[in-house]
Amino acid sequence: MTALALPGRLRAPGLLLMLAVMLGGFAFATRDFTTPGNLLNILLQSSVLLLIALPMTFVILTEGLDLSIGAVLSLCSVALAQTALATGSFMAALSVALLVGGLIGALNGGLVAYLRIPPFVATLGTLGVAQSLALIVTGGQSVTGLPDSVLFVYGGSVLGVRVPILLMIAAYALMHTLLYRTRFGSYVFALGGNREALTLAGVPWRRILVMVYVLAGAWAGLAGLLMAGRLNSGHPTAGIGMEFDAIAAVALGGTSFERGNGWLMGTLLGVLTIGILRNGLNLLAVSSALQVCCIGLLVILTFTLEAFRTQTP
Amino acid sequence: MTAAAAPSRPALPPELIRLLMRVAAVLVIGLALSVLSGAFLSVVNLVNVLRQAALLFFMSSGLTLVVITAGLDLSVGATIGLAACLAGTVIKSTGDPWLGVAAALSVGAAVGLLNGMMVSLLRIPSFIATYGMLWVLQGLTYTFMAGSTVYGFPRGFRQLGNGYLIGIPIPVLLMAALLLVGTLFAQRSVWGQQITMIGANPMAARLSGVPVKRRLILVYTLSGLTAGFAALVFLARLDSAEADIGGALTLPAIAAVLIGGTSLFGGVGTLTGTFVGALLLTLVLNGMNLLHVEGNWQPLVTGLIIIAAVWLDLRGHRIRS
Fold this sequence. Notes:
The structure holds two protein chains of two kinds.
Chain A: H1 6-10, H2 12-29, H3 36-61, H4 69-87, H5 90-113, H6 119-138, E1 143-144, H7 148-155, E2 157-158, E3 161-162, H8 163-181, H9 183-193, H10 195-200, H11 205-231, E4 233-234, H12 242-252, H13 264-283, H14 288-311
Antiparallel strand pairs in A: 1-4, 2-3
Chain B: H1 14-36, H2 43-68, H3 76-94, H4 97-120, H5 126-145, E1 150-151, H6 155-162, E2 164-165, E3 168-169, H7 170-188, H8 190-200, H9 202-207, H10 212-238, E4 240-241, H11 250-259, H12 271-290, H13 298-320
Antiparallel strand pairs in B: 1-4, 2-3
């Protein structure tokens, strides 16, 4: 493995310790936390997050950020739901969701790579665009009455394993291979670590950067399918704030916002951390708003520890 | 300024030209709206536009200073939400508006102080630190309000949003005062110069003895403070507060700063520009209202305006260099 991947890995003991402490704490504090049903629940509830956190890792590795992903997720699930209702075809609905996500991703990528607009402003702008579109096409209402094929994606099982779990395994395997076993993956690391080298080597890095954002949008399309299946509807504001969970998962996982240092397994652990935190706090009857607070504080704590570690000589 | 400069024709400073172009844009949009909509050119509507622009200016003024230091404060809207809800609750439960004012301003300043410390001491990129803060604040606000609404404030307090003094709405007067004081601070004071310097070249600022960390903390604290102030005027105007009051304000606040000509890359920007930017954005949103465009289009338009503003700024950079 490359030396670039090391700093993320060094965070693994801390991250695993945090996971262990939380697991122990919640197991002690609540009665139902360790039941098999609840542990399965944690995984199921983390599925949508994992699907957007994996590509978010790619984006952050390029020293980028995608603030629009939550709004894109809403827009995709709404587009999917409306297409499913209109045509009754699962494939058509999924294609539309992937296409919508990919298009907004392409817009993000174009703004960042070709117009050189800083990613956090470009995607803040497209956040507004995607949010508006989701509200406009639905008139602010949920799209209900989805066909069974969409519901199957969240509720169904294949060979005794729930479909979201299978999707999570497949997504992780795919993204891991893409990042660590292909040339595209090396370019992603280099985009954040050494863009100059890519330019000198004659690599069309702008096109690759656009592809990274398209990838993020398209995965949000697939995540939109899962979310629609879970909510039994397409809701125009259901994805708001999901981008924060995704960014938090990446940050907790030890991927740096500078210099292309990161680790995909860390993101997986980060997603599980957030899933466990939310689930445990749910069992303790802590409101969703306060859960977000806790995630925010956890991220700030991580950054603080990191700052002390890097600033001590 | 030397006599040798521009011998062929006396050129206006480029900053002034760009400001004049923005004023021209305001006039063009105003003219277009008065043709398109009969309701636009009424005194009531124009006063309304000014009052809306004042609200926008309050939250964008401190943010302008942050952007001048090449930072960004994404937590402005959420700060307004928390400050308004806290102040509203304090006023309702104690009956004393001044306690509410104190609550809003101190919450705003405290949030800004924390932001500034994260950015300067922990060196977290500003958009990440303030983005995390956004969600922490929103979580606190929703938990604190628990779905309830506070409304019905004393008449004296509501004057802050609705009242008139010598025929001019009080928010507009306050805006004029803040614009004057803010401009003097940013353009004429040593601290203001240092803040611009930090944005233009942080290394040079540090080497020439500017206390960069302390100035950054000051700038973020001011941004929080003006957000707290905006929350008070907002509260007085709406005469009610609920948890989602600040949610839709972040995009317009940033848009007003950026179309006002303050560069996202630091070192360039004025409060006068932000005032014109706030006026411009308010005119566009007001115009959409008058032309019966659905409110759901507003984030889209604001988002596109943000992107366009940054793109124009970047193009200007490339032409100049």
